[in-house]
């Protein structure tokens, strides 16, 4: 059940009317529900309760400090994809052994940071990276725990831009090469190969590829154990999708039922890196209609939010529901809902049916808790929108609106 519901026709997040938040903060503004975050984190945690597991929340989905702190308070650990995300994790209170560090292009500085901190695992992407980790760790007289990111050549059945498990994708080491790489890596000092890592894509709604990936990586872990490599965990990444359009999708219990059989009797701890599934449905982006304009054969509803606040529709052809915040009664029209940026691709929704809005009306773009604020930009010198966290009948601004002074402070 969603925590965004209508109270007397007006859209609310938990017990707070979205119109009240827009009146106080202005638009665009991102609003998140703490209840949704709690419920969705716990749903995954509970679904995997029968097996030793750790949920490393993928900070890339939404790493605002208050969101990260909330997840930590629920027992989440962290998956960081850059030095910046490691810094955010630490500021949010995660300790290094609670952080896994992933990423296809880790710099020497980032690797050194992770090694010095002693993160739980560095998910290594290539043999070259293993050698660099080894050299950096030896120079610091320490050992780094690494997991090998495996590319299983499995089609995840998602948008090609967010598919990561095919051999033509840049991620990981080809599954057929991992045994040999491991054999060579066992001679490297300064590293301990502790796990295998896999992440085949994001917004996955068919569980079969995830199940196949789990089976492949557990089989490989068994072989490596046979070679006396002390693998203690498999990290199956993230990827579980959500329903953006209301069609049925697998839930946390289905997800666990797909993955657990592969690891059940393996003696391996299961690490997961969920992002979107927890945080996407927890967010809405509020925006104001600035214009409604008729062109021959097409009506445009122009919002004060666009690709700078939510780039998913433009980048992946993603669908997000867009709803009026207050009850609307005007006759329905078919329209394109667009943003204010000077790009024709700046379209949030195409051919949408909507009660004809008027300038000044508030709209909510739904399921924007993940990969929205974190992918925002200053294009057209637009300032980053503020973020608000609702908890019951209270709400808190967790990030203020950026100002043009904030941006220009970096410039001469
Ligand atoms: N672990 C790794 C190694 C990843 O690359 C990702 C996402 C995750 C975990 C979290 O995946 P999730 O559970 O959120 O699916 N910007 C795109 C999504 C990019 C996902 C990148 N990697 C979008 O808006 O759809």
Core attributes:
single chain, 412 residues, alpha/beta, Lyase, Ornithine Decarboxylase, Chain A, domain 1, TIM Barrel, 9-stranded mixed sheet, 8-stranded parallel β-barrel, 12 helices, 27% strand, binds ligand LLP
What's the overall average pLDDT, rounded? Answer: 96
Say which CATH homologous superfamily of the largest domain is assigned: Alanine racemase
| Tally of DSSP β-strands | 21
CATH class of the largest domain: Alpha Beta
The structural domain count equals 2
CATH-defined topology of the largest domain: TIM Barrel
Poorly predicted spans: none
Cα Rg: 23 Å
Question: Shape, please?
Answer: elongated
Number of helices: 12
Write up this protein.
The chain is an alpha/beta fold and about 400 residues long. The protein has two domains: about 5-30 and about 280-410, Beta Barrel (Lyase, Ornithine Decarboxylase, Chain A, domain 1); about 35-280, TIM Barrel (Alpha-Beta Barrel). Helices cover about 30% and strands about 25% of the residues. It is built from twelve helices and 21 strands. The strands form three sheets. Strands 4, 14, 15, 16, 17, 18, 19, 20 and 21 form a nine-stranded mixed beta sheet that branches. It has an eight-stranded parallel barrel with strand order 5-6-7-8-9-11-12-13, surrounded by six helices. The chain has a three-stranded antiparallel beta sheet with strand order 1-2-3. β7, α5 (about 110-115) and β8 form a beta-alpha-beta unit. It is elongated. Bound molecules: ligand LLP.
């Amino acid at each position: 059940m969603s925590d965004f519901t209508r109270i007397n026709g007006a859209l609310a997040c938990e017990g707070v009317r979205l119109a009240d938040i827009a009146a106080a903060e202005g638009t665009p503004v991102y609003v998140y529900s703490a209840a949704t975050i709690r419920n969705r984190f716990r749903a995954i945690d509970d679904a995997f309760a029968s097996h030793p597991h750790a949920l490393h929340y993928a900070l890339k989905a939404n790493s605002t400090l208050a969101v990260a702190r909330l997840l930590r308070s629920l027992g989440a650990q962290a998956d960081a994809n850059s030095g910046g995300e490691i810094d955010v994790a630490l500021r949010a209170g995660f300790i290094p052994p609670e952080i896994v560090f992933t990423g296809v292009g880790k710099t020497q500085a980032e690797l050194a940071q992770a090694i010095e901190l002693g993160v739980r695992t560095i998910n290594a992407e290539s043999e070259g990276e293993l050698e660099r980790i080894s050299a950096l760790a030896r120079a610091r007289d320490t050992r780094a725990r690494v997991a090998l990111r495996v590319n299983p050549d499995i089609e995840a059945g998602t948008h090609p831009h967010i598919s990561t498990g095919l051999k033509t994708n840049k991620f990981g080491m080809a599954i057929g090469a991992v045994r040999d790489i491991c054999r060579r890596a066992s001679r490297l000092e300064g590293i301990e190969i502790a796990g295998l890592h896999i992440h085949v894509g994001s917004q996955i709604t068919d569980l079969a590829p995830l199940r196949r990936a789990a089976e492949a990586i557990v089989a490989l872990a068994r072989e490596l154990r046979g070679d006396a490599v002390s693998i203690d965990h498999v990290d199956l990444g993230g990827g579980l999708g959500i329903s953006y359009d209301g069609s049925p999708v697998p839930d946390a219990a289905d997800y666990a039922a797909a993955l657990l059989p592969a690891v059940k009797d393996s003696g391996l701890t299961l690490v997961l890196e969920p992002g979107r599934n927890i945080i996407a449905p927890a967010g809405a982006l509020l925006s104001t209609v600035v214009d409604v304009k008729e062109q021959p054969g097409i009506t445009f509803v122009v919002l004060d939010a666009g690709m700078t606040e939510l780039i998913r529709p433009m980048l992946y052809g993603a669908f997000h529901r867009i709803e009026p915040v207050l009850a609307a009664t005007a006759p329905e029209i078919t329209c394109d809902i667009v943003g204010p940026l000077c790009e024709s691709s700046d379209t949030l929704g195409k051919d949408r049916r909507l009660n004809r809005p008027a300038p000044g009306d508030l709209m909510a773009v739904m399921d924007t808790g993940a990969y929205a604020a974190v992918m925002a930009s200053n294009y057209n010198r637009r300032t980053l929108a503020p973020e608000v966290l609702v908890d019951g009948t209270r709400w808190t601004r967790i990030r203020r609106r950026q100002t043009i002074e904030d941006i220009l402070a970096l410039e001469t």
